[in-house]
Amino acid sequence: MATLLELDDPADPRLRDYRDLRDVELRKSLEGEEGLFLAEGEKVVRRALEAGFTARSFLMAPRWLDGLADLLDRSAAPCFVLPEALIEQVTGFHVHRGALASLHRRPLPGVDEVLDRARSVLVLEDVVDHTNVGAIFRCGAALGFDAVLLAPRCADPLYRRAVKVAMGTVFSVPWTRLPDWYDALPDLSSRGFTTVALTLADDARPVEEAVAGLDRVALVLGSEGHGLSSRWEQSADRRAVIPMAAGVDSLNVAAATAVACYVASRR
Amino acid sequence: MATLLELDDPADPRLRDYRDLRDVELRKSLEGEEGLFLAEGEKVVRRALEAGFTARSFLMAPRWLDGLADLLDRSAAPCFVLPEALIEQVTGFHVHRGALASLHRRPLPGVDEVLDRARSVLVLEDVVDHTNVGAIFRCGAALGFDAVLLAPRCADPLYRRAVKVAMGTVFSVPWTRLPDWYDALPDLSSRGFTTVALTLADDARPVEEAVAGLDRVALVLGSEGHGLSSRWEQSADRRAVIPMAAGVDSLNVAAATAVACYVASRR
């Protein structure tokens, strides 16, 4: 059972895991070095623990204790209890959904394990915005995708903002980093996937046509700013586009993923 | 031609339009009372002016002047020029894309005007998140929707964050507020639109089937938290759902809109 520790000093060193949550650079180095990630909100904390992650600690205001009592009962980690105003001083902003947990990261699985029995896969090249990464996971989970593969520079799915936007689906959808950027797509092809790159390239065909009748599909998505690298665009088996109205730049990558996942889910 | 005014005091009262951009409540009252809105980034500022909005003023660091020189040439508004560090003191955060403009709002058009010749319309009930409102506009514009109607409590499409996420499509897609919440959907039906509410209701049918073969369609979307009000859900002509994987709550409203707009664009 978690030990409840009522604290009254926001500078208490035991609260280090929860400091300055909006300072992206600080958080990246802290979370990487310590091998931790944060879950925010009762529902997301619950999903992290149910997915088998182990808590380092919890932090919440008194009114959130009841809702998480069953989880705290089953955890050996300390639960720091502070008034909301002091929590805000630690985290640097008002945590709307109250409860926070700091959890241990686990080693990432290998590509073989993630792709085992997968039929529909998302492959993200350099999606750098945590909100987009989270939205893409939520969307893939909702529309029946089995796995997500990330290029080395793609943003971290376990970053707090990504976890929150994903509504915890980053815990349930298998994912990992690709070890080799250059040959990532040919490697997927050799494993029996048809790689379909979403792009505005001239030879792209409508996405519905590009995925029609395929068995194993890997939908490939590029960065918010400039899309896919030319290497990935060219090494994909097919290039696909979502037909759009004239004069509009494009859909945002999360919206494009939603459409492409929907279309692929009905192939 | 815009007058360039080099300022060195972030407290200068002429910079009032740009103050504390992350303080949502302050911005709402300031922008409402003054009848202004902000555009951020060269591309979005350009689109606002090209759509016929009149600038009250501009604010930028020296390095952004060249890119907007043609627009400044054609405007009578003052352009305040400050070093980036001082701009950050005014706005309360680092403005990544440099240029800002404060523009005059215009009276909202009537529903008749917005719906004139429209065939595909989005109707938002209480979407309260500015990011979602912006994403929905961008998506509607990209997928050929002709107009957007907003319930009284829906978030403001001209709020800075919505404008930015929408990539300025809030300037080009006709939109207005619905004067009457209660009978909004029956009124659209009487104008010849089939109102299709996205919902998880038991009698919802797959969205593809719900829009098949329709001429004038109004896609109806509800709040992030609890979806549509029962009045709107029940007074829509049809209820539609995006088929999803078991165990996932739902798609976020922006992702659901992307899928529904795509499906409706191919009806």
From TrEMBL, chains A, B:
Keyword Methyltransferase: yes
Keywords annotated in UniProt: Methyltransferase, Transferase
Protein origin, superkingdom: Bacteria
Gene3D superfamilies in the record: 3.30.1330.30, 3.40.1280.10
TM segment ranges: none
Ranges where the tRNA/rRNA methyltransferase SpoU type domain occurs: 121-262
Single GO term (MF): methyltransferase activity
Keyword rRNA-binding: no
GO biological process: methylation
Classification via Pfam families: SpoU_methylase
PANTHER family recorded: RRNA METHYLASE (PTHR43191:SF12), RRNA METHYLTRANSFERASE 3 (PTHR43191)
Official protein name in the record: TrmH family RNA methyltransferase
Organism encoding this protein: Nocardioides aestuarii
Lineage: Bacteria, Bacillati, Actinomycetota, Actinomycetes, Propionibacteriales
